[in-house]
Amino acid sequence: MKTLKEVPCGQTAKVKKLTGEGPVKRRIMDMGITKGVDVFVRKVAPLGDPVEVTVRGYELSLRKADAEMIEVE
Question: Which CATH number do you get for residue 32?
Answer without folding.
Answer: 2.30.30.90
